[in-house]
Amino acid sequence: MEVQSKSGFVKIIGLILIIFFLGGGLFILSSKDFERNKPVVKTSLNPSWNLNGDFFIYLKDDTGIKDHKVSYEIDSKKHFLLAKMASLSECSFVDQEVENGICLAIEKPNISTKDIQSLNLIVEVTDKSKWNFFSGNKTLENIPILIDTKKPQLAVVSNSYRITQGGSALVIFRAEDENLDKIRISNGENEFIPQPFYKQGYYISLLAWPKNNPTFNAKIYASDTAGNVSIASINFFAVKKEYKKTTISLTDSFIDGKISSLVEEIGERTLASFVDKVSIFKYINEDIRSYSEKYIMQAATNFPLEKIEDFQIYAFSPLKNAAVMASFGDHRTFVYQGEVVSYSHHMGLDLASVKQAPIISSNQGEVVLDAFVGIDGNTLVLYHGLGLSSIYAHLTKSLVGIGDRVERGAIIGNTGSTGLSLGDHLHFGVLVQGHEVWIAEWMDSKWIENNITKVIAEAKGIINNL
Q: Model confidence over 305-347: pLDDT tens digits?
């Protein structure tokens, strides 16, 4: 009996141990802490390095990175490199929304670029998993890197002779490199994205000198995947321009009427939420105006970077027999009861004719915005190509919708008084990559001929003779 009792006890203990180990095994296999996926190492496609700045790699793992080492070998001797954390934006070759990932900036090795043409980077990564007896999953990655110290070839082919403060200009240039990565144009404060032009290696772009930028210094930047950068100045004759300044006295009837009605129409806040009449006006003139400008700029900058073979644009004339009610660039100072309370810049041209006058599209284009937009009321934005858009605001109604292709001469809507408007009129504007520009230029066929048409023709002639 005693032997049988001991035998039964051993079986029970054995069964408990089996259940314990099976449960423990199932726990380990199902637990995230014991995941078995190796860390992932990523870098740019066909990586290259000029050995002047940092080289970036991206590491990702389900449980996170515990340790990493980066090295290279020369003459069978391993040399370790410092790897420091960098902003995820530096690893532009990966999805910025990925979790558990880190971007590393690898310091340049202490070697001469004359000595080598390529470098094999050795990346060793361990994750935080408790797999492999708590030592984690490991990845060993060899990354062959081309050593490239040659800068991209960059040269201006043709450009507009002058640019006026608040206005526009055109540039066509050549940029070539086997590993060309990014091209951008700067006016000193804002950036513009060029588009491929005519033949391989050539690019074209309109650019603007926004009215509120005090200076203008145009340069083209071309960089390759190795980090080499070429810079070319665009020699525009820059002309400063003074714009009209107006002081406007605010009345209680204006704030209680049009401004308050617009607050209620927008519907974000109640009139009771404002402390006084000035705060009501500032909300519309500053907060809603800023929202409207950003909304329209977003619509006008979301355009395809397609190849431009040619570009034909006609002088804009959206309203027949119209009188100018307010000009572009007017700097407005608002005064209430003798005190300055707010400012604004009128960045369009106000035109008035008969009530609900038909609005004409002077150029073919695509409707990219058809919406009620804050102070602009019912608004249309048409995209005409080469980063150029036109805006039509305060409409009673539009006759087109987003995505519609509009032909030259088509009626697209009717004037009105929606938004921040005191009477039936059209607020018309022209935008270059989202920046509102001096409209008079784009309503002048001679200006268009000298600054757009002839520049393109000259560039094509130069390119064809090369």
A: 999 999 999 999 999 999 999 999 999 999 999 999 999 999 9
> What SS3 state is found at 357?
coil
Give the Cα separation of 394 and 421 in Å (integer).
Answer: 7
Say if domain 153-241+454-465 classifies as CATH 2.40.100.10: no
For every residue of 51-113, which 3-state class applies, written as one string?
Answer: CCCCEEEEEECCCCEEEEEEEEEECCEEEEECEEEECHHHCCCCCCCCCCEEEEEECCCCCCC
CA 350 from chain centre, in angstroms, equals 29
User: Hey, do 34-147 and 153-241+454-465 end up sharing a CATH topology, with the first three levels equal?
Assistant: yes
**Alpha-carbon torsion angle 161, 164, 170, 173, nearest 10:** 60
First to last CA, the chain: 108
3-state helix, strand, coil in the chain (%, to 5): 25, 40, 35
CA distances from 44 to 41, 181, 224 (A): 11, 11, 12
CATH H-level, domain 245-437: superfamily = Glucose Permease (Domain IIA) (2.70.70.10)
Distance (Å, rounded) from C-alpha 89 to C-alpha 86? 8
Of the candidates 266, 274, 428, which has an alpha carbon nearest to the alpha carbon of residue 348? 428
Mean pLDDT of 60-66: 88
Q: What is the CATH number of domain 34-147?
A: 2.60.40.60
Longest dimension (CA), the chain: 118
- Per domain, the residue ranges of the chain are 34-147, 153-241+454-465, 245-437
C-alpha span between 192 and 386 (Å, rounded): 11
